[in-house]
Amino acid sequence: MEKICVYTCITGNYDIVNEIVNKEKGIDYYLFTNNKNITSKTWKVIYIEDESLDNQRLSRKIKMLGHPEMNDKYQIFVWMDASVIWKKSIKEFVQKYLKKNNFVTFKHAFRNCIYEEAYECIKMRKDKKQTILKHIDFLTKEGFPHDYGLCEMTVFIRRKDELVEKTMKLWFDMVCNYSKRDQLSFMYCVWKNNLKLDIIRKNVWHNEWIDHVKHNYKKELTECRIYYGDSSVNDDSYDPKMDCLYTYKKKNSIYMVNATIPGDTNIIEIEVTDVPCLVYSNFHCSLPSDKVFFYNTIPYQKKNIFYNNKGIIRLEGTFRKGEKLNFSIELEALSEIEQYGWINKLSDELIILSEEHQRTQYELYELSKIKKSIFYKMYLLKQKIIRKLKK
């Protein structure tokens, strides 16, 4: 019988240790970390270090290349992000999906193209724009095709195999030399090495096998993203040159940005925050606008709150290249206790707050086209409740 190894990695304080609820005989569990404060009752904890790598790339090194402690002892390796919790047997999961080919992972929930995912990563500030553009340029010069496929790399199974190991090494080289976002490299490496995959066509965030917990990561509000155009259009119309990132100037609770419009446009979308649960007020802008819209917001104690991590202000009018866009807004974060109270109060209204659940919110929107689906009904219910709250 092939020996199975389940492994994960925590670098820095990005995740907490999720203990294994049901350890299975015949499976060994490894947790690799550079955090010497981490201990576990159910994982075999192995300390790692590599001063040449940042925390994210160190974690990806383990994810892609494994570790000498385990590489020669096992035939089957199951990677799981540290935020994953198994609801069912890992052995059964392996038996069900590891069949024809030596690598198994989940299909991406929303997209089927690395290029589209790259633009989404720019929009969501998942990596530096110039780094991702360099990544895209490399893929284009290599002749990597559009719509080749896209996978979620949260969980995967790999069997010990020479071609798989060659692909994993190339994958790690890519995240070291280009974007740290591993989804932007994986399918290129598969294409380059002609690696055959088995794809699990389930949503990695919602299935009978696994669940997820929130990352132990608190983000500070330091930057503002502005897109000079309509970011809701498809990626064929997306222009990276019109997507700009600015560092806030801050005075007490007032956040200010001074910008210069890079090109003529009729729409400006200010992504004010990537931190959820911010109360906002006193928005002032130097440019006259025909219309101003606030998105992802509901009333809160005589003020308003951006309830998720994508609070947006949309300006519509006639804006010319070289004009100055100066704005200020008062922002105040809810305390952790206030957040819990507010979330509990609105939990039945399906308002999604955490970064992880932002995926769910996007899915509800996408599946709203399928009117018979439960997601569509949930989406309608959420909109109905928000309208009531605004009255």
Structure in words:
Strand 12 (249-251) and strand 13 (254-260) form a beta hairpin. The protein has helices at 55-65, 68-71, 90-97, 114-123, 129-142, 162-177, 183-193, 336-345, 358-366, 374-390; strands spanning 4-10, 27-33, 44-47, 76-80, 84-86, 103-107, 151-159, 198-200, 210-212, 223-227, 243-247, 249-251, 254-260, 265-273, 278-285, 291-295, 297-300, 303-306, 311-319, 324-333. Residues 347-372 have low confidence and may be disordered. The strands form four sheets. It has a seven-stranded mixed beta sheet, with helices on both faces. The chain has a six-stranded antiparallel beta sheet with strand order 12-13-20-15-18-17. The chain has a five-stranded antiparallel beta sheet with strand order 11-10-14-19-16, with no helix packed on it. 28% of the residues lie in helices and 29% in strands. The protein is built from ten helices and 20 strands. The chain is an alpha+beta fold and 391 residues long. Helix 4 packs antiparallel against helix 5 (129-142), helix 4 packs antiparallel against helix 7 and helix 6 (162-177) crosses helix 7 (183-193). The radius of gyration is 23 Å and the shape is globular. It folds into three domains: 4-113 and 148-212, Spore Coat Polysaccharide Biosynthesis Protein SpsA, Chain A (Alpha-Beta Complex); 218-333, no CATH class; 355-391, no CATH class.
